[in-house]
Protein backbone atom coordinates (compact mmCIF):
# COMPACT_ATOMS: atom_id res chain seq x y z
CA UNK A 1 0.00 0.00 0.00
CA UNK A 2 1.22 3.49 -0.89
CA UNK A 3 2.12 5.97 1.81
CA UNK A 4 -0.13 9.00 2.01
CA UNK A 5 1.18 12.43 2.96
CA UNK A 6 -1.20 15.28 3.74
CA UNK A 7 0.56 18.65 3.67
CA UNK A 8 -1.37 21.30 5.64
CA UNK A 9 -0.23 24.90 5.79
CA UNK A 10 -0.65 28.57 4.89
CA UNK A 11 -0.93 29.19 1.16
CA UNK A 12 -0.19 32.49 -0.53
CA UNK A 13 -2.62 35.23 0.32
CA UNK A 14 -1.68 38.18 -1.85
CA UNK A 15 -3.93 40.54 0.07
CA UNK A 16 -1.77 40.18 3.20
CA UNK A 17 1.92 40.71 2.62
CA UNK A 18 2.73 40.22 6.32
CA UNK A 19 2.44 36.47 5.84
CA UNK A 20 5.00 36.23 3.05
CA UNK A 21 7.68 34.83 5.33
CA UNK A 22 5.38 32.03 6.47
CA UNK A 23 3.88 31.08 3.15
CA UNK A 24 7.14 30.91 1.19
CA UNK A 25 8.60 27.84 2.99
CA UNK A 26 5.26 25.99 2.81
CA UNK A 27 4.76 26.85 -0.86
CA UNK A 28 8.28 25.72 -1.77
CA UNK A 29 7.86 22.40 0.03
CA UNK A 30 4.47 21.86 -1.65
CA UNK A 31 5.96 22.53 -5.06
CA UNK A 32 8.78 20.07 -4.42
CA UNK A 33 6.48 17.42 -2.87
CA UNK A 34 4.05 17.64 -5.79
CA UNK A 35 6.83 16.77 -8.22
CA UNK A 36 8.22 14.05 -5.97
CA UNK A 37 4.83 12.38 -5.51
CA UNK A 38 4.51 11.97 -9.28
CA UNK A 39 7.10 9.21 -9.05
CA UNK A 40 4.29 7.01 -7.71
CA UNK A 41 5.56 6.02 -4.26
CA UNK A 42 3.27 8.37 -2.37
CA UNK A 43 -0.28 9.72 -2.53
CA UNK A 44 0.04 13.41 -1.84
CA UNK A 45 -2.63 15.92 -0.76
CA UNK A 46 -2.31 19.61 0.00
CA UNK A 47 -4.74 21.45 2.28
CA UNK A 48 -4.49 25.24 2.49
CA UNK A 49 -5.02 27.15 5.73
CA UNK A 50 -6.12 30.43 4.24
CA UNK A 51 -9.13 32.58 3.51
CA UNK A 52 -10.40 36.08 2.78
CA UNK A 53 -11.95 36.58 6.22
CA UNK A 54 -11.98 35.05 9.70
CA UNK A 55 -14.84 32.69 8.86
CA UNK A 56 -13.21 31.21 5.77
CA UNK A 57 -9.93 30.85 7.66
CA UNK A 58 -11.70 29.07 10.52
CA UNK A 59 -13.43 26.79 8.01
CA UNK A 60 -10.07 25.90 6.45
CA UNK A 61 -8.75 24.87 9.88
CA UNK A 62 -11.84 22.87 10.86
CA UNK A 63 -12.05 21.09 7.52
CA UNK A 64 -8.42 19.98 7.87
CA UNK A 65 -9.35 17.88 10.93
CA UNK A 66 -10.81 15.16 8.70
CA UNK A 67 -7.27 14.20 7.72
CA UNK A 68 -6.36 13.66 11.37
CA UNK A 69 -9.45 11.70 12.40
CA UNK A 70 -10.12 9.66 9.25
CA UNK A 71 -6.64 9.60 7.74
CA UNK A 72 -5.82 5.91 8.21
CA UNK A 73 -2.32 5.02 6.96
CA UNK A 74 -1.50 8.69 6.35
CA UNK A 75 1.09 11.10 7.70
CA UNK A 76 -0.27 14.60 8.29
CA UNK A 77 2.35 17.34 8.39
CA UNK A 78 1.06 20.62 9.84
CA UNK A 79 3.02 23.79 9.01
CA UNK A 80 2.00 26.14 11.80
CA UNK A 81 2.54 29.33 13.74
CA UNK A 82 2.11 29.51 17.52
CA UNK A 83 -1.65 30.12 17.22
CA UNK A 84 -2.00 27.22 14.85
CA UNK A 85 -0.34 24.86 17.33
CA UNK A 86 -2.67 26.07 20.08
CA UNK A 87 -5.65 25.32 17.83
CA UNK A 88 -4.55 21.78 16.94
CA UNK A 89 -3.30 20.77 20.41
CA UNK A 90 -6.62 19.37 21.79
CA UNK A 91 -7.38 17.55 18.53
CA UNK A 92 -3.97 15.87 18.53
CA UNK A 93 -4.60 14.65 22.08
CA UNK A 94 -8.10 13.44 21.16
CA UNK A 95 -6.81 11.51 18.16
CA UNK A 96 -4.30 9.67 20.33
CA UNK A 97 -6.90 9.09 23.08
CA UNK A 98 -9.15 7.33 20.55
CA UNK A 99 -6.17 5.34 19.16
CA UNK A 100 -6.45 6.82 15.69
CA UNK A 101 -3.47 5.62 13.67
CA UNK A 102 -2.77 8.79 11.71
CA UNK A 103 0.82 9.90 12.13
CA UNK A 104 1.04 13.61 12.88
CA UNK A 105 4.02 15.93 12.64
CA UNK A 106 4.26 19.69 13.09
CA UNK A 107 6.62 22.12 11.44
CA UNK A 108 6.85 25.27 13.57
CA UNK A 109 7.83 28.52 11.88
CA UNK A 110 9.86 31.29 13.57
CA UNK A 111 12.40 31.16 16.37
CA UNK A 112 10.61 32.01 19.62
CA UNK A 113 8.58 28.91 20.50
CA UNK A 114 10.48 28.32 23.74
CA UNK A 115 9.81 31.88 24.90
CA UNK A 116 6.11 31.61 24.02
CA UNK A 117 5.90 28.30 25.87
CA UNK A 118 7.65 29.56 29.01
CA UNK A 119 5.45 32.67 29.28
CA UNK A 120 2.19 30.72 28.82
CA UNK A 121 -0.04 29.72 31.69
CA UNK A 122 0.41 26.34 33.40
CA UNK A 123 -2.58 24.72 31.69
CA UNK A 124 -1.36 25.71 28.20
CA UNK A 125 2.14 24.40 28.95
CA UNK A 126 0.77 21.05 30.16
CA UNK A 127 -1.48 20.65 27.12
CA UNK A 128 1.31 21.62 24.72
CA UNK A 129 3.84 19.28 26.27
CA UNK A 130 1.41 16.33 26.23
CA UNK A 131 0.42 16.90 22.60
CA UNK A 132 3.94 17.58 21.30
CA UNK A 133 5.15 14.31 22.87
CA UNK A 134 2.53 12.49 20.79
CA UNK A 135 3.92 13.79 17.51
CA UNK A 136 5.90 11.72 15.08
CA UNK A 137 8.24 14.69 14.61
CA UNK A 138 8.29 18.27 15.85
CA UNK A 139 10.20 20.09 13.11
CA UNK A 140 11.91 23.31 14.21
CA UNK A 141 13.70 26.01 12.29
CA UNK A 142 16.71 26.52 14.56
CA UNK A 143 19.18 24.28 16.37
CA UNK A 144 18.68 26.03 19.70
CA UNK A 145 14.94 25.25 19.57
CA UNK A 146 15.66 21.60 18.73
CA UNK A 147 17.92 21.34 21.77
CA UNK A 148 15.29 22.95 23.97
CA UNK A 149 12.48 20.69 22.73
CA UNK A 150 14.63 17.58 23.13
CA UNK A 151 15.26 18.54 26.76
CA UNK A 152 11.48 18.26 27.31
CA UNK A 153 11.37 14.77 25.83
CA UNK A 154 9.87 15.92 22.52
CA UNK A 155 11.04 14.21 19.32
CA UNK A 156 12.36 17.33 17.59
CA UNK A 157 14.07 17.50 14.20
CA UNK A 158 15.98 20.34 12.56
CA UNK A 159 14.20 21.69 9.47
CA UNK A 160 15.79 25.04 8.65
CA UNK A 161 14.47 27.66 6.30
CA UNK A 162 15.74 26.96 2.78
CA UNK A 163 15.67 28.31 -0.74
CA UNK A 164 15.95 26.79 -4.21
CA UNK A 165 19.25 27.87 -5.74
CA UNK A 166 18.68 28.73 -9.40
CA UNK A 167 22.19 29.94 -10.20
CA UNK A 168 25.69 28.54 -10.37
CA UNK A 169 28.09 30.52 -8.12
CA UNK A 170 30.81 30.76 -10.75
CA UNK A 171 28.36 32.49 -13.11
CA UNK A 172 27.98 35.41 -10.71
CA UNK A 173 29.53 38.72 -11.68
CA UNK A 174 29.85 40.30 -8.24
CA UNK A 175 30.03 44.02 -7.72
CA UNK A 176 33.54 45.16 -6.86
CA UNK A 177 33.63 47.43 -3.82
CA UNK A 178 35.04 50.79 -4.81
CA UNK A 179 37.41 52.82 -2.68
CA UNK A 180 34.88 54.45 -0.42
CA UNK A 181 31.20 53.86 -1.06
CA UNK A 182 29.28 50.86 0.21
CA UNK A 183 26.02 49.82 -1.40
CA UNK A 184 23.90 47.87 1.10
CA UNK A 185 20.54 46.18 0.70
CA UNK A 186 17.61 45.72 3.09
CA UNK A 187 14.89 43.25 2.07
CA UNK A 188 11.70 42.12 3.75
CA UNK A 189 8.94 43.95 5.56
CA UNK A 190 10.14 47.52 6.03
CA UNK A 191 9.10 48.13 9.62
CA UNK A 192 10.34 49.50 12.91
CA UNK A 193 10.78 46.05 14.51
CA UNK A 194 12.70 44.89 11.45
CA UNK A 195 15.23 47.65 12.06
CA UNK A 196 14.32 50.31 9.51
CA UNK A 197 15.18 53.25 11.76
CA UNK A 198 18.54 51.71 12.61
CA UNK A 199 19.21 51.55 8.87
CA UNK A 200 18.20 55.21 8.53
CA UNK A 201 20.53 56.10 11.42
CA UNK A 202 23.34 54.19 9.75
CA UNK A 203 23.28 56.28 6.57
CA UNK A 204 23.07 59.50 8.57
CA UNK A 205 26.24 58.63 10.47
CA UNK A 206 28.23 57.19 7.55
CA UNK A 207 27.92 59.28 4.37
CA UNK A 208 29.68 56.65 2.23
CA UNK A 209 26.76 54.21 2.70
CA UNK A 210 23.63 53.95 0.56
CA UNK A 211 20.83 51.43 1.13
CA UNK A 212 18.32 49.99 -1.34
CA UNK A 213 15.12 48.64 0.20
CA UNK A 214 12.94 45.81 -1.16
CA UNK A 215 9.58 44.80 0.30
CA UNK A 216 6.30 46.19 1.64
CA UNK A 217 6.46 49.44 3.60
CA UNK A 218 4.79 49.22 7.02
CA UNK A 219 3.43 52.76 7.43
CA UNK A 220 3.41 56.27 6.00
CA UNK A 221 6.02 57.64 8.41
CA UNK A 222 8.55 55.13 7.10
CA UNK A 223 7.61 55.98 3.52
CA UNK A 224 8.15 59.65 4.31
CA UNK A 225 11.59 58.91 5.79
CA UNK A 226 12.59 57.03 2.64
CA UNK A 227 11.36 59.78 0.33
CA UNK A 228 13.24 62.47 2.27
CA UNK A 229 16.64 60.74 1.92
CA UNK A 230 18.80 60.62 -1.19
CA UNK A 231 20.68 57.56 0.11
CA UNK A 232 17.64 55.40 0.83
CA UNK A 233 16.21 54.01 -2.39
CA UNK A 234 12.93 52.11 -2.42
CA UNK A 235 12.99 49.32 -5.01
CA UNK A 236 9.48 47.90 -4.56
CA UNK A 237 8.34 44.29 -4.12
CA UNK A 238 9.77 41.64 -6.44
CA UNK A 239 9.63 37.80 -6.56
CA UNK A 240 12.30 35.83 -4.70
CA UNK A 241 14.05 34.56 -7.83
CA UNK A 242 14.44 38.13 -9.09
CA UNK A 243 15.59 39.27 -5.66
CA UNK A 244 18.43 36.74 -5.70
CA UNK A 245 19.54 38.12 -9.07
CA UNK A 246 19.38 41.68 -7.77
CA UNK A 247 21.27 40.88 -4.55
CA UNK A 248 24.58 40.27 -6.28
CA UNK A 249 24.84 43.96 -7.20
CA UNK A 250 25.21 44.91 -3.52
CA UNK A 251 28.09 44.71 -1.07
CA UNK A 252 26.15 43.37 1.92
CA UNK A 253 22.70 42.78 3.37
CA UNK A 254 21.87 44.79 6.48
CA UNK A 255 19.29 43.35 8.91
CA UNK A 256 19.20 45.10 12.31
CA UNK A 257 16.00 43.32 13.34
CA UNK A 258 14.72 43.34 16.92
CA UNK A 259 11.74 41.08 16.16
CA UNK A 260 12.13 38.30 18.73
CA UNK A 261 10.11 35.79 16.69
CA UNK A 262 12.72 35.82 13.91
CA UNK A 263 13.95 32.35 13.00
CA UNK A 264 16.26 31.94 10.00
CA UNK A 265 15.38 34.95 7.81
CA UNK A 266 14.91 33.87 4.22
CA UNK A 267 16.45 37.11 3.03
CA UNK A 268 19.80 36.19 4.65
CA UNK A 269 19.72 32.93 2.67
CA UNK A 270 18.78 34.74 -0.54
CA UNK A 271 21.70 37.11 -0.04
CA UNK A 272 24.10 34.24 0.69
CA UNK A 273 23.03 32.37 -2.46
CA UNK A 274 24.08 35.53 -4.26
CA UNK A 275 27.42 35.57 -2.45
CA UNK A 276 26.41 38.59 -0.39
CA UNK A 277 27.25 38.51 3.36
CA UNK A 278 24.86 39.79 6.04
CA UNK A 279 25.28 42.26 8.87
CA UNK A 280 22.72 41.28 11.52
CA UNK A 281 21.76 42.40 14.99
CA UNK A 282 22.97 40.36 17.96
CA UNK A 283 19.60 41.04 19.69
CA UNK A 284 17.80 38.08 18.09
CA UNK A 285 18.96 34.45 18.28
CA UNK A 286 17.75 33.17 14.89
CA UNK A 287 19.71 35.48 12.58
CA UNK A 288 22.78 35.14 14.84
CA UNK A 289 22.72 31.34 14.58
CA UNK A 290 22.18 31.48 10.82
CA UNK A 291 25.17 33.77 10.22
CA UNK A 292 27.28 31.42 12.35
CA UNK A 293 26.06 28.44 10.31
CA UNK A 294 26.99 30.22 7.08
CA UNK A 295 30.44 31.03 8.39
CA UNK A 296 30.37 34.53 6.93
CA UNK A 297 28.94 37.88 7.96
CA UNK A 298 28.84 40.00 11.09
CA UNK A 299 26.79 39.90 14.27
CA UNK A 300 26.88 43.33 15.87
CA UNK A 301 25.22 45.74 18.27
CA UNK A 302 23.85 48.47 16.00
CA UNK A 303 24.11 50.97 18.87
CA UNK A 304 27.85 50.34 19.18
CA UNK A 305 29.91 52.48 16.77
CA UNK A 306 33.04 50.37 17.21
CA UNK A 307 31.25 47.18 16.17
CA UNK A 308 29.59 48.88 13.20
CA UNK A 309 32.87 50.35 11.97
CA UNK A 310 34.68 47.02 12.37
CA UNK A 311 32.06 45.28 10.22
CA UNK A 312 32.20 47.96 7.52
CA UNK A 313 36.00 47.95 7.49
CA UNK A 314 36.13 44.15 7.30
CA UNK A 315 33.57 44.19 4.48
CA UNK A 316 35.70 46.60 2.48
CA UNK A 317 39.02 44.87 3.07
CA UNK A 318 38.37 41.14 3.18
CA UNK A 319 35.33 40.14 1.12
CA UNK A 320 36.86 39.31 -2.24
CA UNK A 321 35.13 37.73 -5.22
CA UNK A 322 36.56 34.34 -4.22
CA UNK A 323 35.18 34.66 -0.68
CA UNK A 324 31.73 35.43 -2.05
CA UNK A 325 31.84 32.40 -4.30
CA UNK A 326 32.70 30.24 -1.28
CA UNK A 327 29.78 31.75 0.66
CA UNK A 328 27.41 30.88 -2.18
CA UNK A 329 28.71 27.31 -2.32
CA UNK A 330 28.46 26.93 1.46
CA UNK A 331 24.81 28.06 1.62
CA UNK A 332 23.99 25.77 -1.30
CA UNK A 333 25.48 22.82 0.59
CA UNK A 334 23.56 23.52 3.81
CA UNK A 335 20.33 25.30 2.88
CA UNK A 336 19.39 24.17 -0.61
CA UNK A 337 15.71 23.21 -0.62
CA UNK A 338 16.22 20.10 -2.74
CA UNK A 339 18.75 18.62 -0.33
CA UNK A 340 16.82 19.43 2.85
CA UNK A 341 13.45 18.32 1.43
CA UNK A 342 14.86 14.96 0.34
CA UNK A 343 15.88 14.23 3.95
CA UNK A 344 12.51 15.35 5.33
CA UNK A 345 10.59 13.34 2.70
CA UNK A 346 12.31 10.12 3.73
CA UNK A 347 11.21 10.73 7.33
CA UNK A 348 7.62 11.41 6.31
CA UNK A 349 7.08 8.32 4.17
Q: Give the overall shape.
A: elongated
Strand order of the largest sheet: 2-1-3-4-5-6
Extended strand count: 12
Q: What composes the largest sheet?
A: 6 strands, parallel
Q: Could you state the oligomeric state of the chains shown?
A: single chain
Give the strand content.
15-25%
**What percentage of residues falls in helices of 4 or more residues?**
40-55%
Along the chain, the helix and strand elements come as EHEHEHEHHEHEEHEHEHEHEHEHHH
* Category from helices, strands and their pairing: alpha/beta
The CATH superfamily name of the largest domain is: Glycogen Phosphorylase B
Poorly predicted tracts of residues: 14-19
Under the CATH scheme, which architecture of the largest domain would be assigned? 3-Layer(aba) Sandwich
Question: Gyration radius, to the nearest Å?
Answer: 21 Å
Distance between the termini: 12 Å
User: Counting H and I runs of at least 4 residues, what is the number of helices?
Assistant: 14
- The first-level CATH class name of the largest domain: Alpha Beta
Q: What is the CATH topology classification name of the largest domain?
A: Rossmann fold
Give a description of the structure:
It is built from 14 helices and twelve strands. The chain has 349 residues and is α/β, with parallel strands linked by helices. It has two domains: 3-159, Rossmann fold (3-Layer(aba) Sandwich); 169-334, Glycogen Phosphorylase B (Rossmann fold, 3-Layer(aba) Sandwich). The strands form two sheets. A six-stranded parallel beta sheet has the order 2-1-3-4-5-6, with helices on both faces. Strands 9-8-7-10-11-12 form a six-stranded parallel beta sheet, sandwiched between helices. The longest helix is centred in the N-terminal third of the chain and has 18 residues, at 20-37.
Amino acid sequence: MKSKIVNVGPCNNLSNTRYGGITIPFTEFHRWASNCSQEGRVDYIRHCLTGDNIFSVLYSYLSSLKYIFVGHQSHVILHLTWRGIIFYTPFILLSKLFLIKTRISIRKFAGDFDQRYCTSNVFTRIMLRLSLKKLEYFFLETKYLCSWASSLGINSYYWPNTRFNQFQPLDFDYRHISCGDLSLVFAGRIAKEKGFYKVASLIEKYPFISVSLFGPIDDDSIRSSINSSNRLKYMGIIPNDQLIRQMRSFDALVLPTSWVAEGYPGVVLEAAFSGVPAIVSKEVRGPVELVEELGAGWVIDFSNSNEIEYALRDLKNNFSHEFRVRLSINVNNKFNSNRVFENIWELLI
